[in-house]
């Protein structure tokens, strides 16, 4: 048996044994042991965790001979035999193995008492196994209850080579180094040590540690390649937690298939249609559909690479490629000038130097000579020309210049000047707009300066106010003068009636006052005109309405025509001192002024009511609904702006004081805003809240005209310093555009109520028409393009075109000037 064991030990893999006291002095007698002891040791190692009855497990037990025979003693084997006997006596089931290795159980153990004892013994064994495994897994800190071991962690021990200690314990005390002695001392200690005891040196705590039997067992199992714990079950029984048999529930098992599963896909049909269309157009081919080509661009590049077409070796963009490469910036050397006639082998006679010139060149430095060191010479043929003696020297000097002289890259802007100017659409693409003078309106008498114009909302009639104080009513289509009213005479007679002391001779001496402003009522049902002349504002009924419009107009003017005692103004209000309403129906002398109505339906015609102010009226404007209107008297101070209501014959003064001299005022077309323009600024007031909303800074010296776009978001201002200023109320208080196209002062500006057109009239006698498209998209800025310059008025006394107004429904424009002419420009 001993020989058999020895051969097994020789065949086992070489494992380095653990240092022990009898490792060197062990003999064959110590290694040999009985077959019974071998069986007991095997049972001890396989007792609790590996009793599965499998041959594979039994084969793994045979490997215990390999590590139990490495450095073990007789005492150790006896201890293992006793442990195996104690474990086998606790079990109630006796397992026997037959010759094939299969486990058998005695039938005598099937009694109920044996079963209960087996269960209790199994519980005790499980607890013992768990306690053993827990004890093995304890850390070094748990094994040191007193806290005397070294606690320096993973600090290298060679750091303490120069000290008498090697660390500190849990109480902060130094762990003193212990002297191990020489080899002789260690040999004596091993001789004195009991046989079968294993001792290792703990370098961290500087002391010898005696290994327990349990630790020796674990170490030997790890050396042999087995699991460290003998109680570990490496092959537990498989527990089938989930069944692998699929089970079908009865839910939704009797539902019919959807109809869409039996019909062709509409999306796939669309994809096929698109691919067929692209295949027909040639954007893809069959290689793309079959998946041979992933991208058609790759196929195009491949064809270009495979093509044998000629190409340029020098494309001219070599410098650009050098500039785009990485690294220092490439600076091209300056090019040398091409050789001239003097460098020819057969130069003309005038380039050949004479003997005197050669003597003069010899006295000069090479830099001052005409051709440097080169002297022009004449040869019979090119083969007779020898090598230039200074060629290498000049080339070397040039290389030195390029190497030593600093050079700087100067970037030149290669920009086309036309690209800096925004590309505007052609004027022909922006039609319609007025282009040609078609009709000229004349009175037949000596014409006077026409200061203002206005058109009826239906575009059928035109009214003009002149320097002579006469209001003329024209028919637009025919140019016929329909009516005219001498408003200057009406004002003079009204003033004469109030001042009874003046004689008729004194009245003839007075000069007639001009009509400064005029505007037709924007409401189609209200056929009346508002005019400003001198210190008065007059309401004139035109008598041009239909039967319904005539009744509406009479109802609107009824309150004003029958007014008494200055109007419906509170006596304590500020407006009572600034304005006075006077009805003209009571003046019998004035009733005979052209009382015949133009329309067949009759109605009131002629001046109806007059509003007397303290200062001259320079501007009058209607509200879009045709009931309210505003008058401006620049010299009236706080009463410069007055708002009136025609249907109630009432007036009000909105401001207690004014900032600057007010020049113009107009209403917002949609919101309750009032635009008040001084000489330099335009202020926007909220009439309901009675606060200033915004102040527009025009940058002009003297504002002469003002108009608001139909949308209400844009304002255009004309000034006497030749500026046309466009404001976008949604952007800022500063101008969006400032245009200077005229040579002299601007007298009138305005928007077309329907078409995207804008025009400005100036003292230079011209009228500039602009295409002014305002988009509903707030992200797009307005488009302003000059399209036409209309000329037709001559300059008289430094005055040119004084007034202009657009036709309400057609892209036509009316203009009036200091020459007394009124023109109609149409889009022909």
UniProtKB/TrEMBL annotation:
Residues 25-41, 51-78 have a biased composition (Acidic residues). WD repeats lie at residues 443-484, 739-770. Residues 160-434 form the BOP1 N-terminal domain. InterPro entries: BOP1/Erb1 (IPR028598), BOP1_N_dom (IPR012953), WD40/YVTN_repeat-like_dom_sf (IPR015943), WD40_repeat_CS (IPR019775), WD40_repeat_dom_sf (IPR036322), WD40_rpt (IPR001680). One of its GO terms (biological process) is maturation of 5.8S rRNA from tricistronic rRNA transcript (SSU-rRNA, 5.8S rRNA, LSU-rRNA). Its main location: nucleus. Residues 1-153, 328-349 are annotated as: Disordered. Residues 95-109 have a biased composition (Basic and acidic residues). Residues 115-128 have a biased composition (Low complexity). It is found in: Nucleus, Nucleolus; Nucleus, Nucleoplasm. One of its GO terms (molecular function) is ribonucleoprotein complex binding. GO terms for cellular component: nucleolus; nucleoplasm; preribosome, large subunit precursor. Keywords: Nucleus, Repeat, Ribosome biogenesis, rRNA processing, WD repeat. It holds the Pfam family WD40. Belongs to the WD repeat BOP1/ERB1 family. PANTHER family: RIBOSOME BIOGENESIS PROTEIN BOP1, RIBOSOME BIOGENESIS PROTEIN BOP1 BLOCK OF PROLIFERATION 1 PROTEIN. Required for maturation of ribosomal RNAs and formation of the large ribosomal subunit. This is Ribosome biogenesis protein BOP1 homolog. It comes from Cyclotella cryptica.
């Amino acid at each position: 048996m001993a020989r058999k064991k020895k051969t097994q030990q020789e065949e086992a893999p070489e494992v380095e044994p653990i240092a022990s006291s009898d490792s060197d002095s062990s003999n064959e007698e110590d290694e040999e042991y009985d077959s019974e002891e071998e069986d007991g040791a095997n049972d001890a190692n396989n007792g609790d965790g590996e009793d599965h009855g499998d041959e594979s497990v039994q084969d793994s037990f045979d490997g215990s001979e390999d590590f139990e025979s490495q450095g073990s003693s007789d005492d150790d084997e006896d201890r293992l035999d006793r442990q195996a006997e104690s474990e086998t006596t606790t079990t109630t089931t006796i397992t026997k193995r037959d010759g094939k290795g299969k486990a058998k159980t005695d039938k005598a153990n099937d009694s109920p008492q044996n079963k209960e004892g087996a269960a209790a013994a199994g519980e005790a064994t499980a607890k013992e196994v768990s306690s053993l495994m827990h004890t093995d897994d304890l850390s070094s800190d748990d094994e040191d209850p007193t806290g005397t071991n070294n606690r320096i962690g993973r600090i290298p021990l060679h750091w303490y080579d120069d000290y008498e200690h090697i660390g500190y314990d849990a109480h902060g005390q130094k762990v003193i180094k212990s002297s191990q002695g020489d080899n002789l001392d260690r040999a004596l200690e091993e001789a004195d040590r009991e046989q079968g005891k294993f001792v290792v040196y703990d370098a961290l705590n500087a002391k010898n540690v005696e290994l327990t039997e349990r630790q020796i067992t674990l170490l030997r199992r790890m050396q042999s390649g087995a699991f460290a714990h003998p109680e570990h079950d490496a092959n537990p029984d498989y527990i089938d937690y989930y069944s692998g048999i699929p089970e079908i529930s009865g839910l939704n098992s009797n539902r019919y298939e959807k109809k869409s599963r039996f019909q062709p896909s509409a999306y796939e049909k669309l994809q096929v249609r698109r691919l067929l269309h692209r295949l027909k157009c040639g954007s893809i081919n069959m290689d793309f559909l079959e998946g041979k080509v992933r991208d058609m661009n790759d196929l195009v590049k491949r064809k270009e690479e495979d093509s044998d077409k000629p190409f340029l070796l020098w494309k001219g963009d070599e410098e650009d490629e050098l500039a785009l490469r990485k690294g220092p910036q490439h600076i091209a050397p300056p090019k040398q000038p091409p050789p001239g006639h003097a460098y020819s082998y057969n130069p003309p006679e005038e380039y050949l130097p004479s003997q005197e010139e050669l003597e003069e060149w010899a006295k000069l430095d090479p830099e001052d000579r005409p051709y440097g060191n080169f002297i022009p010479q004449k040869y019979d043929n090119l083969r007779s020309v020898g090598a230039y003696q200074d060629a290498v020297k000049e080339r070397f000097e040039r290389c030195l210049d390029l190497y030593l002289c600093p050079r700087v890259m100067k970037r030149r802007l290669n920009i086309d000047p036309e690209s800096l100017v925004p590309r505007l659409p052609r004027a022909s693409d922006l039609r319609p707009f007025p282009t040609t003078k078609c009709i000229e309106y004349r009175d037949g008498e000596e014409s006077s300066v026409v200061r203002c114009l206005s058109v009826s909302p239906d575009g059928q009639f035109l009214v003009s106010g002149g320097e002579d104080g006469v209001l003329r009513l024209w028919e637009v289509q025919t140019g016929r003068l329909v009516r005219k009213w001498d408003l200057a005479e009406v004002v003079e007679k009204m003033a004469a009636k109030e001042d009874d002391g003046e004689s008729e001779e004194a009245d003839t001496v007075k000069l007639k006052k001009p009509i400064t402003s005029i505007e037709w009522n924007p409401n189609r049902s209200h056929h009346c005109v508002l005019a400003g002349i001198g210190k008065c504002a007059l309401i004139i009924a035109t008598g041009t309405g239909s039967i319904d419009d005539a009744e509406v107009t009479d109802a609107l003017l009824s309150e004003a025509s029958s007014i008494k005692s200055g109007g419906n103004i509170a006596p304590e209000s500020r407006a009572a001192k600034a304005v006075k309403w006077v009805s003209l129906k009571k003046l019998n002398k004035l009733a005979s002024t052209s009382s015949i109505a133009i329309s067949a339906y009759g109605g009131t015609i002629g001046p109806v009511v007059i509003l007397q102010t303290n200062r001259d009226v320079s501007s009058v404007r209607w509200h879009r609904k045709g009931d309210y209107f505003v008058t401006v008297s620049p010299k009236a101070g706080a009463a410069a702006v007055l708002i009136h209501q025609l249907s109630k014959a009432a007036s009000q003064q909105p401001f207690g004081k004014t900032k600057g001299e007010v020049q113009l005022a107009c209403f917002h077309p949609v919101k309750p805003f009032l635009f008040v323009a001084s000489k330099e600024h335009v202020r926007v007031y909220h009439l309901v809240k009675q606060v200033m909303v915004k102040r527009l800074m025009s940058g002009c010296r003297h504002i002469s005209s003002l108009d608001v776009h139909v949308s209400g978001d844009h304002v255009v201002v004309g000034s006497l310093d030749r500026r046309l200023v466009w404001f976008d109320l949604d952007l800022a208080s500063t101008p969006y555009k400032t245009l200077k196209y005229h040579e002299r002062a601007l007298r009138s500006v305005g928007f077309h109520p329907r078409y995207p057109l804008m025009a400005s009239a100036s003292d230079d006698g011209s009228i500039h028409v602009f295409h002014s498209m305002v988009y509903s998209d707030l992200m797009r800025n307005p488009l302003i393009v000059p399209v036409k310059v209309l000329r037709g008025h001559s300059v008289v006394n430094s005055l040119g075109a004084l007034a202009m107004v657009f036709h309400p429904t057609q892209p036509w424009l009316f203009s009036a000037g200091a020459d007394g002419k009124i023109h109609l420009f149409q889009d022909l």
